[in-house]
Structure formats: structure tokens, C-alpha cells
Structure prediction request, 86 residues.
Amino acid sequence: MTEVKRLWGLDIHGLKGIFQKAGKVSDVYIPHKRTRRFKLRFGFVRFWRTEDAVKSINMFNNATIRGRRLTVVIAKFQKGEKRWRG
Prediction:
């Protein structure tokens, strides 16, 4: 699963449309809650293949979308944390 930070005005369909250029997207999730510290929006894009997730990082990390820079990383979960199931 790839975590995408710094979303501006993108919904799940827009995010999926962008990231499917890297490979077949399984799920997209954008929480409604923003981070309090930086007031950033973030979302998650799940790919069918790990290789596509890595490709999305290479393609979109630090890319500019709608005039804003994206940060794309592999999502990291804390031990014992329940993972999102779309």
C-alpha cells in the first residue's frame, strides 16, 4: 500500500486516475481527518502488485500535481495496528 501525503482537492476517483498510470490500483482511501500538526490531507492507494507500488513511488514522489508537490511512500503500520480493509 502506498501512502500519499499532501492532497489538495483530489477525490478517490482523481487519485486513482493519477496512480493507475503506475499499475493496476486495487483500492483508494482518503480519510476525512487532516493531520493537526501540518493540516495536510493524505490518502492511501493500494496496488495489486508490489512492483506497481514501488513504481508509483518512483513516478510520483516529489511530483507536482495541480501545482502542489506530492510525497509518496510505502505505508508503515505499527505492530498490532489494524490495517485498513477497503
